[in-house]
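Standup notes
- DV: blocked on the single-chain target, sequence here:
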Amino acid sequence: MLCELHISNLAVIEDASVELQSGLNVFTGQTGSGKSLLIGALELLLGGRASGGGATMIRPGCDEARVSGLFEVRDEQTAREVAKILDRQATPGEPMLITRRLLATGRSSVSIDGAPASATMLRELGQHLVDIHGQHDQQYLLRPANQLRILDEFAGTAGLREKFAAGYQQLRQTRARRDELNESRETRKREIELYEFQAEEIDAAELTPGLFARTQARYVKLSNLGQLKQEAGQICQTLGEADGSVVEQLQVLCKQLANLAQLDAKKLAGPNSQLHDATEMLQDCWAELNRYADGLELDPDELTHCEELLDTLNRLIHKYAKAGDAASLAENNSANEDDPTSAVLRYREHVAGLLEQLRGQDADCSGLDAEIARLEKSLAEVGQKLSAGRARASKKLKPLVESQLAELGMAEARFDAVLEPLAGEASGPGGLERVEFVIRTNPGQDAQGLRHIASGGELSRIMLAIKTILTNKDRVGTLVFDEIDANIGGRLGEVIGQKLKQLADSAGHQILCITHLPQIAAWADHHLHIAKEVTGKGAGRATSTTVKPLTGQARVSELAEMIAGKTPSQTAQAQAQEMLQTAGSKK
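- DV (later): unblocked, structure below
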């Protein structure tokens, strides 16, 4: 419900605050007083386009125009929709302030409860808050999607439509995933072949951590075997095999020092022991070198094998070690730069993961085909139930709308909700068909879509008829009717006024209606008067519009003026009083 509307510096409205109540709110005033501007302000507030970028709508001499509306969402479902749009919690009954500013630069801004918002968000939000019916750009009834929504509300198939929309979206996403995988099939095949080759190449080398370092050390030894054997033998000769060898001389020295130590044990016991130990160590070294030199036998096949393995390792390290370190770092694992063999093994693990993923995608293609078939079958079943419900509702809605239109002065009108099947890919999230409300307003004319009807008054009456039928199923809290009294007389005006009042009472709607007919205005729960005033003198003259509620005698006088003109007679006053009494007795 719209609790308060505040307008400042918009065209002829300098500053106007309108407090609104639940029930039927009627606006009256002389032609040109700004009644249509009030509806225009509300449209702007709900995301409507500002003509000329908005700059031409700003009151002369002002930098900006501002429209603010304080709303209260009472319906729980609507509160959930509002919460979804605003991406925040929305509690039923909690006030919500929407403000739109039009700047002289041509730009505009939107805020919701003080937070910036987009015009798109505002338009989407407005669809859940207010329905405006008349000769306006925001005409709700002219949009095919809204006509389908109206039919579903009447049919009780809104839940099926939501289920169909969810299934449609899931099917669309699944098809897109399948198509994406199919398009990349050849690329995926080439990648699998490449990674399989790399995995086989690494596996064939039978790598183990540290293998490169061990092989490199073995190769150095084998390639220098002759030098090792020759020079080790020479050392052995010098140490203990040649005449006057080091060991032989040390043994002689040991005997001499041992004899001296017997003469001066206190001073020479240490040197004697050290020389003895050194001699034994050199003897052990000589024996070890002998065994080492004797074991050095050159095997050409082993050297060849070592060279080949080292070539293989160098090739694998050059190709994969950096990639292995990069993959390890990408997976937040530490890389061991001192062991290139381990880096190659890490890349092998990475390749295994890639192969598993790519092969899984091939399996996904088959699984997605089955899933698509299941979703298509399920969607078709839901769509058929939805279509059947809509077809039954279309037949029921036709006579009900025509009966209501007859009461609203359109007895010759013929209404129909035409369902047009949508085949295959042409179907959308709304179901397997689209709907168009068509009407023939006069005999001899062809039935045509509502969008081809020029009269805002006829559109308003058609919407009133539909809303009356959907009394308890419409969640939009505020309905706005403009031009609903166009080209009708007082007798029909009373019928329309009574229906507006009944709609407000039975469904708990807040209805805003602009009218020139006292027969409609008399049924209002709240009567507001719009007046235009000119103030100032000469070049300083300015026009402004005010809105004020009417009660008691002021309301009687306004109705009397609507009946008889500027200076109503006592008879007109009595007629106005009688209208109020009659409407009051039937409420």
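- Follow-up: DSSP finds 17 helices and 15 strands in the chain.
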